[in-house]
Design a protein that fits this description.
- By secondary structure, the chain is an alpha/beta fold.
- It contains five helices and six strands.
- Helix 2 links the parallel strand 1 and strand 2.
- The longest helix is centred in the N-terminal third of the chain and has 13 residues.
- The two termini are about 25 Å apart.
- Bound molecules: S-adenosylmethionine.
- The site of S-adenosylmethionine (SAM) has 13 residues, from loops.
Amino acid sequence: MAANKVSNSGKAIGIDMTDQMLEKARENAKKGNYSNVEFRKGDIEENIPLENNSVDAVISNCVINLTTNKTNAFKEVFRILRHDGRMVISDLITDTELSSGEVNSEQWCECIDGALTKENYLSCMRQAGFEKIEVLEERAYMDGDKINGRKITSLVIKAVK
Ligand SMILES: C[S@@+](CC[C@H](N)C(=O)[O-])C[C@H]1O[C@@H](n2cnc3c(N)ncnc32)[C@H](O)[C@@H]1O
């Protein structure tokens, strides 16, 4: 999808930490005959495999909530974005965060137990250096049903470096 958005001289670079996802992405790029896309392996909390100030835009769907250190993930995004570059992310947040002892690993992998409150999520972005932050969309996740007693919300946020 990103490859369709960038111009012919542009490039889309997909990042994931698992070989399985990278393999699937490369297969899809091959099927679609895309030559302006490549995939790199990396842990976004540790080191996104891209140079400082090197990309125009970062998009992400339902990944940050899976990380254990959201501020580090946002710091890495901030590092690779050029000045005035933008990040648009879609993610899940919750009304009640869990302590580490309450976390269920399966529920974490389903993007639920690692979710932060909106306040803490935005705070992680600010700590990473983002100042210009705009909430583009906020809506109930899964018809607004509570999951394990907690309200889960889907959020789309734009932040500019
Ligand atoms: C819920 S899937 C979303 C995938 C894709 N964005 C989509 O919308 O279909 C989450 C993906 O994030 C990757 N992921 C989770 N934590 C990561 C990390 N710290 N660094 C890199 N990739 C990570 C997982 O391997 C998985 O492929």
